Amino acid sequence: MRPDVAVVDLDCPGASAALLVDTDAARPLPRSTPLLVLARADAPGSLRRAFLTQAQGYVDKDGSPARLVRAIGRVAAGERSIDATLASAFMEADPMPLSPRELSVLARAAEGDSIAEIARTLHLASGTVRNYMAAVTRKTGARNRIDAIRISRRAGWV
């Protein structure tokens, strides 16, 4: 299928792992598919994550259905759409310390994938995945992978 617009709620399990993958082979949608993200104003980390997906539109999850329909129409027409309620939350979002690749590795780990599964999915060597996980652990100030996932979830990055 080639959808006109993909609407994704990054709070749903598996969404961030599927959409933050930065290799075309593992990404479930073609890069040409415009992405509209549902987000909450009280979760600036989620907005930062959405920004990294290069979404064309951002809709407040607490907004009206009519607002979502209008945003889908705008994004389908090639325009950007950002809810006014999310604009200030965008400015408040902490800078993302992780690179897109580190984030994609962490998102897969947060879904419970093993090092081998992450390597296979992202077309990396297992040692490279371990290196990315070590960088994630260091950058988040975590003690281990589980702590890095916990910290990143609390910040809204995964």
- Helical element count? 8
**Strand fraction:** 5-15%
What's the N-to-C terminus distance? 26 Å
Strand arrangement within the widest β-sheet reads 1-2-3-4
Specify the biggest β-sheet: 4 strands, parallel
Radius of gyration: 16 Å
Describe the structure.
Strands 1-2-3-4 form a 4-stranded parallel sheet. With 158 residues, the protein is an alpha/beta fold. The radius of gyration is 16 Å and the shape is globular.
List the SSEs and their pairings.
Blueprint lengths: L5 E4 L5 H5 L15 E5 L4 H9 L4 E4 L4 H12 L4 E2 L1 H9 L7 H11 L4 H8 L3 H15 L4 H11 L3
Parallel strand pairs: 1-2, 2-3, 3-4
Summarize the entry for a quick read.
The protein is α/β, with parallel strands linked by helices and 158 residues long. The chain has eight helices and four strands, in the order βαβαβαβααααα.
Attribute tags:
single chain; 158 residues; alpha/beta; four-stranded parallel sheet; 8 helices; 51% helix; 9% strand
